[in-house]
Amino acid sequence: MKRPPPHNWLFIFKAVVDAGSITLAAERLSVTQSAVSQQLKSLEEYLGKRLITRSKKGVALTDVGRHYYNVIKVSLDSISNATDQMFGRDRRDTVTVRANYSFVEHWLTRHLHEFHVLCPGVSFELYTGFWLSDFDQSSAGVEIRYGEGGWAGYHCHRLSRDTTYPVCSPELAARITSLEDVLTHPLVAIMGNRTGWLEWAHQNGIPLQSCQPALSVENNLLAYELAANGPYVTLALDSLVGDHLASGQLVKVPGGEVASVEDFYVLEPANGTHTPGEAMFIDWLKGKFKAGSAAPEAAPQSAGVAR
Fold it and tell me: What is the spatial distance between Cα 212 and Cα 188, in angstroms, rounded to a whole number?
């Protein structure tokens, strides 16, 4: 396979065709005519084909040149458009948000339209992952984390104050008669969450020397789906499980609610600055959550970042 020619040769070729002459292309590119001619010559020699013919009236494409131009134009225009979208001037009004998929799926997608009503000129880029390592920690933007707060280099604003409790399908709930009975059924654990089954049992005074879950998954949503569709019990965060409870897919086991040691935080770099759009989004996000509450205002089924 023949390697593609250098990008600058292709760029010059397209510029000449678009301008209709070497002279006009050179003026638009602020280079000399000889430089443009040399680039074209190098491209044609590399390809082994004549792409354009020159005359006093300008340039004309050969048959192979016309076909090659159509291919090159699509590719170069696509690169230019992507560059403008990602790095152009309008980036000043783009808010980059990095959060766990669970937060974006169960909270942000349900409320972001409210922000756009207030700030219609702001666009968003949403990046999701399951673990802290999924994100480039040096990147700018708005980051929402689930944890204990106090991350070095950031001002951490708590968005929630979560509790956790066992949930299962309505069919299984009908067979559970006590908190101790919960542990006799297959358990689903969420990897990375500090408040797991051992901590839950200890805080409820249930003797438990060891706990080997039937399943371990990397995020809360998988755990909820497993519990809703099988004979499993999992621990739910009240700020994340609202949709499943409201729909009746899951039922909360009475009693046994304990405070989570982790919450959802929006992070602001201690030594950095935000764009106006990012600053507005952070202020809006803080305002959506009641102080000391796991649920945002008027949204009892709100979600947060699941690790």
Answer: 9
> 176 to each of 180, 201, 223, how far by Cα in Å?
9, 16, 19
Entry pTM: 0.62
Name the class of domain 163-259: alpha beta
| CB atoms inside a 10 Å sphere around CB 281 | 24
Tell me the pairing of strands 233-237 and 187-190: parallel
CB 226 within 8 A of CB 172: no
Identify the band that residue 304 occupies on the pLDDT scale cut at 50, 70 and 90: very low
Q: Where are the beta strands (DSSP E) in 153-299?
A: 154-158, 163-168, 187-190, 215-217, 233-237, 251-252, 258-259, 263-269
Averaged pLDDT score across all residues of the chain: 83
Indicate the pairing of strand 251-252 with strand 163-168.
antiparallel
Write a three-state SS string for 44-56.
HHHHCCCCEEEEC
Domain boundaries defined on the chain: 7-87, 90-161+262-288, 163-259
d(CA 201, CA 189): 13
Each residue of 41-87: pLDDT tens digit?
A: 999 999 999 999 988 778 999 999 999 999 998 888 888 767 665 66
Q: Which has the higher per-residue pLDDT, 300 or 1?
A: 1
Residue 25 neighbours by CB distance under 10 Å: 25
- Give the amino acid at 22: I
Classify 255 as helix, strand or coil.
coil
The topology under which CATH files domain 7-87 is Arc Repressor Mutant, subunit A (1.10.10)
Q: Do 7-87 and 163-259 agree at the fold level?
A: no
Class level of CATH domain 90-161+262-288: alpha beta
